[in-house]
Amino acid sequence: EPEVTQTPSHQVTQMGQEVILRCVPISNHLYFYWYRQILGQKVEFLVSFYNNEISEKSEIFDDQFSVERPDGSNFTLKIRSTKLEDSAMYFCASSGQGRYNEQFFGPGTRLTVL
Amino acid sequence: KNEVEQSPQNLTAQEGEFITINCSYSVGISALHWLQQHPGGGIVSLFMLSSGKKKHGRLIATINIQEKHSSLHITASHPRDSAVYICAVSGGTSYGKLTFGQGTILTVHP
Predict the structure, then answer these.
(1) What is the DSSP letter of A60?
(2) Residue A72 has what pLDDT?
């Protein structure tokens, strides 16, 4: 069964460093999302991506963040100059033909900023 | 902005019990999702529904659009059902983004 994959599973970085979180969505999906979950809190939407551009972003998704789909299969989230408060679990998700379809989640990347 | 509230926040049950988790939301939606999150953190989609009722094995999800309310039922609960159950909604002018509830922590004892 097709699945969304994410790498790495755990990333530890120093404050101020740049990190890139990688996702491979399900191959025929068209809508892509990044969410994050700070420990003990609810999951929050960061950004949605469709037709090779950002379709919607939250107020969390400021200039520190960027997304890319560089090669038609990978979907990356870049965090420039990480802060302590960026420590969280980051989930990638994808969905099929319609924006209100079921979303399939990757296993997540746990980011720890020291 | 849609507010999604779940109840209860914590639920403990004995194996075999019937379980109900409730979700309410404040603004009209296109779809409501029930998700399961295991201790390792991964999120799995259980149901997506926009009206009526859906059943999958021992899980049943219902939604009342007029009352902006949904329930997730688990019949004959089992310790392997222990997880966090999350309600999320999508709709309006969004490109499918999900707005999440805080989750219900379910523990089923043998």
Answers:
(1) T
(2) 78
Q: Which one of A31, A45, A108 has the shortest CB-CB distance to B99? A: A45
Residue owning tokens 């509230």: B5
Q: Which of B92, B17, B4 is nearest to A43 (CA)?
A: B4
Provide, as residue numbers in chain A, all residues whose Cβ is less than 8 Å from the Cβ of B97. 33, 45, 48, 56, 58
Helix, strand, coil share of chain A (percent; to 5): 5, 50, 45
**In terms of CA atoms, which chain B residue is nearest residue A57?**
B97
Percent of chain B surpassing pLDDT 70? 96
Q: What is the pLDDT of residues A9-66, one digit of tens each?
A: 999 999 999 999 999 999 889 899 999 999 999 999 999 999 889 999 999 999 999 9
Dist CA B107 CA B15 (whole Å): 10
- Token representation of residue B49: 């529904």
Closest chain B residue by Cα to residue A3: B44
| Cα B33 off chain centre by | 7
Q: CB of A30 within 8 Å of any CB in chain B?
A: no
Q: Which chain A residues touch B105 with a CB distance below 8 Å?
A: none
Confidence (pLDDT) at B95? 67
Q: Is residue B16 within 8 Å of B110, Cβ to Cβ? A: no
**Total count of residues recorded for chain B:** 110
Which residue on chain A is closest to B33 by alpha carbon? Answer: A102
Determine the pLDDT at residue B54: 96
Q: Rounded to an integer, what distance in angstroms lies between the CA atom of residue B49 and that of residue B63?
A: 7
Distance in angstroms (rounded) separating the CA atoms of residues B40 and A19: 22
